[in-house]
Specification:
- The chain contains 13 helices and eleven strands.
- It has helices at 2-8, 20-27, 36-40, 43-48, 52-59, 121-130, 150-156, 173-176, 179-183, 197-205, 216-229, 236-243, 246-260; strands at 9-11, 14-15, 60-63, 68-75, 78-88, 94-101, 107-109, 114-119, 133-137, 164-169, 192-196.
- Strands 1, 2, 3, 4, 5 and 6 form a six-stranded mixed β-sheet that branches. Strands 7-9-8-10-11 form a five-stranded mixed β-sheet.
């Protein structure tokens, strides 16, 4: 389905020649239609955090023109990025995450020793809802030139050298190609923990096996089979919306990380 969808939808269009403050002001006071946010995030996840309303107010607004949810990234009060979930170009083609502002801006929150590396706009909201430390790249390509990325070098890189970085990779080649560029930025590359979506799904599949009866060989065969059928581009948002239960998601993350250490 995703493969077919990608043929008809353009991704990550960045628009220029505009006033980002005016765009933001035209959206910020719009009421968000019922059900729009739960199309992006399962209701169980939204209802889990008592601060959900505060988080959504900080990051999400609504574009009447595009009839779409919008995610806004700020540095303090300065608007850095506005990303419209679904918009249309002049020809009427659907665009996913039409972006105004900086595509290079990195949203992050580092408050403990385990920092999740995520990719995409929706994952930022999920990290906030789960209240975890994270660094979010808007696109995979940003990681290819981190040595020349001012925000990374001055604000983020010095903070992560004694942390574990947990890379939650999308199921595609482009995302896997971010592994080495990120490792090269670390004094201890071994502190990077690589987690594929298939790893999380496998942990989910064997979550009730507390006896250790399921053999390593059985797990390997399970992963080989499901790797072949997992949708290209399947990501952390897809995984969370599939599992739904926040406590289960947290348990799967914890168990998967333990297995990688």
């Amino acid at each position: 389905f995703k493969a077919e969808l990608s043929k008809t939808i353009k991704f990550d269009v960045v628009t220029t020649s505009y006033n980002i403050e005016e765009i933001y002001n035209s959206m910020i006071n719009n009421s968000i239609p019922s059900g729009y946010i739960s199309e992006l995030f399962d209701l169980q996840i939204l209802e889990h955090n008592p601060r959900t309303k505060e988080i959504l107010k900080r990051f999400i607004c609504y574009s009447k023109i595009d009839d779409s949810i919008v995610i806004v990234l700020k540095d303090k009060e300065e608007i850095k990025t506005i990303a419209i979930n679904r918009a249309k170009d002049k020809e009427g083609n659907l665009i996913k995450w039409k972006t105004f502002g900086s595509k290079k801006y990195i949203q992050y929150k580092i408050k403990d020793d385990f920092v999740f590396i995520v990719y995409g706009m929706s994952e930022i909201i999920l990290c906030e809802l789960f209240d975890i430390s994270y660094i979010a790249f808007q696109s995979d390509s940003i990681t290819k030139n981190l040595q020349n990325h001012k925000q990374w070098n001055e604000g983020i890189k010095p903070m992560i050298q004694d942390k574990y970085l947990i890379l939650l990779l999308d199921n595609d080649i482009s995302c896997r190609e971010t592994i080495n560029p990120i490792k090269e930025e670390l004094e201890s590359p071994s502190n990077a923990i690589i987690i594929e979506m298939i790893d999380l799904l496998q942990t989910k599949a064997f979550l009730t096996d507390t006896t250790g009866i399921v053999s390593i060989e059985s797990r390997k065969k399970w992963q080989e089979h499901h790797n072949k059928i997992l949708d290209k581009g399947y990501d952390f948002k897809d995984f969370c919306n599939e599992v739904k239960n926040p406590q289960t998601i947290e348990e799967i993350l914890k168990n998967t990380i333990k297995a990688k250490l």
